[in-house]
C-alpha cells in the first residue's frame, strides 16, 4: 500500500550526470564520475523564520517555494556542471599550477552569486515564456476577432507549442538526453520510496518515469490556469501593452494557483476519476523524462539514501539540542 500520506514528501531534480534530492534539513547531489565513483555535494537547509511563515500560507507558498528551489537548485546544478567540466579538462588541469585555496568569504560570495543568478534566470525565463506568446498572438490575431477567451486559448496553444519545440530541440544533444534519463531515475526512486519498496536497482526500475508532483506538470498547469485567469471579465485589454502588463501583474497569482492545483492533483492521484486531472502534466513528462540505465538509477538511489541519512543525523542532533536546552 502507498505510504505517501504517512511519510515526508521529498522532491528532487536531475543535474548533469546525477540527481539532487531535497530533504527536510539538507539538499544532496550525487554525480557519477568517469572512474565509476560517486561524488556528493551537500548543502544544509537553514530555516529563515519569515520565509518559513510565508511557506505555510496557501497560494503564496508556491511562489516562495519556487524561488527558493531555483536558488538552491542552481547551486547543485553548478556543482554538477563544474564536476563534469573538470573531468573534461582533466589533462589541462593536471599541467596547470595548483590554484590557491579560496577563502571562506570568496566561497560564500560564489554561492550567493550562483543563487542570485539562479533566481534571476528563473524570473527572466518565466517572463519571456509569458510575454512572447502573448505578443505573438496579439500580432497574429489581435484584430481578427474580439473573443477574449479565444485569444487566451490561442496564446496558451502558442505557449505549449514553443515549450514542446524547445524541449524537442535541446533533447537532441547527448548531454540533455542523459539529463532526461536522470530525471526519470529521480522519479523512479521517489515512487519506489513512496510505495514502501526497497531502494534497490531491481525494485526501483519497476516504476514509471512519470510522477504527478513533477515540475514539468507545474509548467503545464501554469499555461492551463493562465488561460482561465486571463479570461476573467475584469482583465480585458485595449492594447498590447495593457495585455503584457496584465500578464506580468498576474504572474504571481498564476504560479500560486498552479502550485495549489499541483498539490491537489497529487493528493487525488489514486482516485479513479480525479486522477485524470494530472494527465496533461504527465504527457509533457513523456518528453522531459527517459528510461534510465541501471547505473543512473544507482546514482539516484545513492543520492536519496545519503539525503535520508543526513536528515536522520540532523533530526537526532536537533532533538539532543532541545533535550540539553530543556
Question: What is the residue-mean pLDDT, rounded to a whole number?
Answer: 83
Straight-line N-to-C gap: 39 Å
Structural class: alpha+beta
Helical content class = 55-70%
Uncertain ranges: 1-5, 93-97, 99-119
Strand order of the largest sheet: 1-2-3-4
Put simply, the count of helices is: 11
Q: How many distinct folded domains?
A: 1
Q: In what range is the share of β-strand residues?
A: 5-15%
Q: What is the total tally of β strands? A: 4
The largest β sheet comes out as: 4 strands, antiparallel
Folded structure, characterized:
This protein is of the alpha+beta class and 326 residues long. The chain has one domain (11-90, 101-325). The chain has helices spanning 49-54, 60-88, 90-95, 104-141, 148-170, 174-195, 201-204, 215-230, 240-267, 279-288, 294-325; strands at residues 11-15, 18-22, 26-32, 38-44. A four-stranded antiparallel sheet has the order 1-2-3-4, sandwiched between helices. A hairpin with a 5-residue loop joins β3 and β4. α5 packs antiparallel against α8 and α8 (215-230) packs across α9. The protein is globular, with a radius of gyration of 22 Å. 32% of the residues are buried. Mean pLDDT is 83; it is low at 1-5, 93-97 and 99-119.
